[in-house]
């Protein structure tokens, strides 16, 4: 195992100092933070400025009142755009053109409450008890699930491609022949997967921290559904499982060629599988309770993206998560064993592309 850790440390030290990795880390954090700020920027201010002449109406959360001396001043303030509307003596509203529909409803509600209070009546609010899923969070959960799909797909394909490129680079330059005099093939392969996986995990953590920090700064954390910590942990765990699966495939396919120019062609089956997994997960974010999403959340490697998306979008029974996790672990072990076998037999065969069927046989 010492050889594996030595290789992993070498991969981490080599990659973490490259400009490409540092730039990708910064870009990922900035993009996720920007997504958290975007609704606030596009949505504008939710508070309306209302000029008041005469007695001020009862306070309302969406209204900010400004005292005006008379109706003439109120008309000027509305036309100049200093206020969104003006309330005259509690029973007349001035607006520049057509009154905003939402503002009109709020002012109507405030006016009604003022009349009820003046009549000495007390309105007892309805008691609301939720007996099913809380629909308040459904839109937020769908948005989080969609974001998880994009982040997982980007990090999985990015990290797996680095594994494949590293294998081809070492094989093409024949450095692998020197390395294999000191470590075993499975140690070299395992160290590369672990080292680059650690860097991918760092990238994921940075993205999560940036997203949570930006959400806290914009006040969106108040809209987060219950169990947000479980959603974050689920994304991290499933990323590790998905990365182990796809990086093993990438290493196996990468060991078949000796030139970077041939890499995209040999990786086509893996990239197609990842694209299909991504599309399935994206569909699951929209229809998390559908039959397709439920079935494929148990099928490796689709479960590596579909299950964390379902966990974010809806409440998934713990037993389903555990069963999907066990099946994914079994698939990861099988792929790692097969990839180690292909890597051991193909990595020292330079020159023309090695056929997968020939190596397996």
From TrEMBL:
Transmembrane spans: 21-42, 144-168, 189-211, 231-254, 266-285, 321-343
Domain of life, per lineage: Bacteria
Pfam families reported in the protein's UniProt record: ABC2_membrane_3 (PF12698)
GO terms for cellular component: membrane
Topology in membrane: Multi-pass membrane protein
Subcellular location: Membrane
Record GO terms (molecular function): ABC-type transporter activity
Keyword vocabulary terms for this entry: Membrane, Transmembrane, Transmembrane helix
Domain ABC-2 type transporter transmembrane: 66-338
Location (main, coarse): membrane
Protein name per UniProt: ABC-2 type transport system permease protein
Organism: Microbispora rosea
């Amino acid at each position: 195992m010492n050889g594996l850790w030595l290789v992993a440390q070498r991969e981490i030290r080599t990659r973490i100092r490259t400009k490409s990795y540092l730039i990708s880390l910064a870009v990922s954090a900035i993009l996720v933070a920007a997504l958290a700020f975007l609704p606030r920027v596009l949505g504008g201010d939710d508070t309306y400025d209302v000029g008041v002449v005469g007695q001020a109406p009862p306070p309302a959360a969406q209204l900010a009142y400004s005292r005006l001396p008379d109706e003439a001043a109120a008309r000027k303030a509305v036309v100049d755009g200093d206020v969104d509307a003006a309330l005259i003596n509690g029973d007349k509203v001035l607006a520049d053109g057509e009154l905003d529909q939402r503002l009109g409803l709020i002012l109507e509600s405030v006016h009604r409450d003022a009349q009820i209070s003046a009549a000495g009546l007390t309105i007892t609010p309805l008691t609301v008890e939720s007996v099913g899923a809380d629909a308040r969070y459904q839109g937020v959960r769908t948005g989080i699930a969609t974001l998880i799909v994009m982040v997982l797909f980007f990090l999985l394909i990015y990290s797996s491609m680095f594994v494949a490129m590293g294998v081809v680079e070492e094989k093409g330059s024949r450095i692998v022949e020197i390395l294999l005099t000191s470590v075993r093939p499975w140690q070299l392969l395992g160290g590369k997967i672990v080292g680059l996986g650690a860097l991918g995990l760092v990238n994921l953590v940075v993205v999560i921290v940036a997203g949570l920090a930006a959400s806290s700064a914009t006040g969106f954390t108040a809209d987060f559904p219950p169990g947000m910590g479980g959603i974050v942990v689920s994304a991290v765990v499933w990323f590790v499982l998905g990365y182990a699966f796809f990086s093993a495939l990438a290493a196996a396919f990468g060991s078949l060629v000796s030139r970077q120019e041939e890499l995209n062609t040999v990786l086509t089956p893996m990239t197609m599988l990842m694209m299909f997994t991504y599309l399935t997960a994206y569909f699951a974010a929209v229809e998390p309770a559908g039959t397709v999403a439920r079935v494929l959340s148990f099928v490796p490697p689709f479960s590596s993206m579909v299950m964390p998306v379902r966990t974010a979008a809806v409440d998934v029974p713990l037993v389903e998560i555990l069963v999907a996790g066990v099946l994914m672990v079994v698939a990861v072990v099988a792929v790692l064993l097969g990839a180690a076998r292909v890597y051991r037999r193909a990595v020292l065969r330079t020159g023309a592309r090695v056929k997968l069927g020939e190596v397996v046989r």
